Amino acid sequence: MSAQLPLITGLVLAIAIMAAPASADALKDEIAPTGKLRVAIAISPAGGAFWCTRTESGYAGVPVDLGRAMATELGVPVEYVVHQNSGQITDAASKGTWDVTFLPKDPERETRMTFGPIYEVADATYIVKPGSTVTNFASLDQPGIKVAAVNNTTTMRGAIAHLKQAKVTGHQTYDEIFNLLKNGEVDAFALSRDQLNAMAKKIPGTRVLDETFKQTVTAVAVPLNHPLSAAFATKFMMEATSNGTLRKAYDNNGLKETPIRTQTK
Questions:
Q1: Which residue in 83, 99, 194, 265 has the most C-beta neighbors within 10 A?
Q2: One CATH from 3.40.720.10, 3.40.190.10, 3.30.230.70, 3.30.70.20 for 4-120+218-252
Q3: What is the DSSP secondary-structure string of 101-145?
């Protein structure tokens, strides 16, 4: 038996050496079939843990930094696939136009893509137009009140479920709703508190309500039936959380004071 041990050990080592490149190639074939890691992002003026912004040299945002780090680990170039909102990203999940994304998770979206670890938990509320007499949810939820939300998003679905009398209407872009609110054409806008606090600084007279109607959670995601991609994305985000990559992405994008709030489910 002892004479056979070196031979067995050598065979195991040879098999492992041959298998490693094949496994790496299989992962790249699945997660980066075009030779690039295509990262789906959504654009708004404020940026944040989910939203990204346009810059003179390209794009900025937590998903931009995380996508770049993920591509580096894979050894492939990164390409950003721009959308106007998370609903558009969700609708494209089955079309093969992106490979990985970072977006709010909800039960409806879990039927259309595979999510990894949650890296942000955000409070959703409303901002009211300049001069509004609305001060809380009770005074907001009245007949004739018009509430805007970004179309086909988890926040929009949450606002529709929350408000029983006010009318919630979806719009395609953050910019469109920003202008409607600024001009007083809608009474309120439903979004995450951090985003709305940034908006309030740009539109004098607006007010972000103190109450919270929903907590939204943001996570890494890949299209359905991509098991190697899902496993890699999960491992990447767990390491990014522990090795400081995620914290650095927050700090680089104006979120130095924002704590990272993770969930395992």
A1: 99
A2: 3.40.190.10
A3: EEEEE-HHHHTTEEEEEEEEEEEEEEEE-TT----SHHHHSSTT-
Residues in the chain: 265
Q: pLDDT tens digit string along 57-90?
A: 899 999 999 999 999 999 999 999 999 999 999 9
Q: How far is CA 162 from CA 124, 153, 201, in A?
A: 11, 14, 26
Average pLDDT in the chain: 89
* Mean pLDDT of all residues in 48-53: 89
Are 26 and 89 in contact by the 8 Å Cβ rule? The answer is no
Region 234-247: what's the mean pLDDT? 96
Separation CA 191–CA 9 (nearest Å): 58
Q: Are 80 and 41 in contact (CB under 8 A)?
A: yes
CB 157 within 8 A of CB 106: yes
Segment (H or E) for 215? strand 214-223
- Candidates 228, 96, 209; CA nearest to 159 is 209
- Sorting pLDDT into bands at 50, 70 and 90, what band is 100? very high
Which residue matches tokens 């994304």? Answer: 101
From the candidate CATH numbers 3.40.50.2300, 3.40.50.800, 3.40.190.10, 3.40.50.300, the one assigned to the domain spanning 123-215: 3.40.190.10
